[in-house]
């Protein structure tokens, strides 16, 4: 037995201490630290070592242009979706603000998964002081996704379309390594499905092959002292995850 590795208890505590950061300081990330985190991400396993993903790194003016475009589209989309059918039809006609790449995040969750999403949403909005019926305040809070919560770096994760769910699985493994390495370096991260609906705005800034599809974003930077960064989402139990053998 190999006894030279890290203490298992330390590993469990370290994994449990990671949080999704939703308020960042503007402090730049030193390039050598960002490079190391990206290098660490590539130690994750991969399907036949194909590494079917690309990472577009947005900082500075590039990040700001993408953010401004996202915020502009969200402003249009959120206002129209709160109004009547005529305005929704106008949105479909103009198309500005409509998803250009992925519509999954605007669809309702299935019954099995919905309660988990509703719980974390309720707890977060309560922390933000947003009341249940205050749609405008909810939309304003959601808009913070599109400023990347103030992070100095936004990563856009792309996966090769030929491997379908397996590419997403590999990207998830890579992202988990990246997030844990960032955590070890004193940085915070937040994986963002919310940014994956306007792929064209990102491609305007980056030369990305059409063989790759946008999976999600990932904000990275130094966490602020905001209470939101101490929020811990509820974890399901192992019994909810494990599938037992059928009984005779």
TrEMBL record:
Its cofactor is FMN. GO terms for molecular function: oxidoreductase activity. Keywords: Flavoprotein, FMN, Oxidoreductase. Residues 16-222 form the Nitroreductase domain. The keyword Flavoprotein applies. InterPro entries: Nitroreductase (IPR029479), Nitroreductase-like (IPR000415). Pfam families: Nitroreductase. Gene3D superfamilies: NADH Oxidase. Belongs to the nitroreductase family. This is Unannotated protein. It comes from freshwater metagenome. The lineage of its organism: unclassified sequences, metagenomes, ecological metagenomes.
């Amino acid at each position: 037995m190999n006894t030279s590795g890290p203490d298992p208890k330390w590993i469990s505590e370290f994994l449990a201490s990671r949080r999704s950061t939703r308020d960042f300081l503007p402090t730049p990330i030193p390039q050598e630290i960002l490079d190391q985190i990206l290098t660490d991400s590539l130690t994750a396993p991969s399907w036949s070592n194909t590494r079917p993903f690309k990472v577009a790194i947005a900082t500075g003016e590039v990040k700001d242009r993408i953010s401004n475009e996202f915020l502009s589209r969200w402003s249009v989309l959120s206002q129209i979706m709160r109004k009547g059918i005529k305005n929704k039809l106008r949105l479909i006609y103009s198309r500005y603000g409509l998803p250009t790449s992925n519509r999954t995040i605007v669809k309702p969750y299935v019954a099995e998964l919905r309660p988990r999403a509703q719980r974390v949403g309720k707890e977060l909005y309560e922390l933000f002081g947003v009341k249940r019926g205050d749609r405008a305040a909810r939309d304003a809070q959601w808009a913070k996704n599109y400023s990347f919560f103030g992070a100095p770096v936004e990563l856009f994760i792309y996966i090769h379309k030929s491997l379908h769910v397996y590419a997403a699985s590999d990207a998830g493994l890579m992202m988990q390594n990246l997030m844990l390495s960032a955590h070890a370096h004193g940085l915070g991260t937040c994986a963002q499905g919310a940014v994956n609906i306007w792929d064209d705005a990102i491609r305007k800034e980056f030369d990305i092959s059409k063989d790759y599809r946008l999976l999600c974003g990932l904000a990275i930077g130094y966490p602020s002292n905001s209470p939101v960064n101490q929020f811990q989402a509820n974890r399901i139990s192992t019994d909810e995850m494990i599938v037992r053998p059928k009984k005779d």
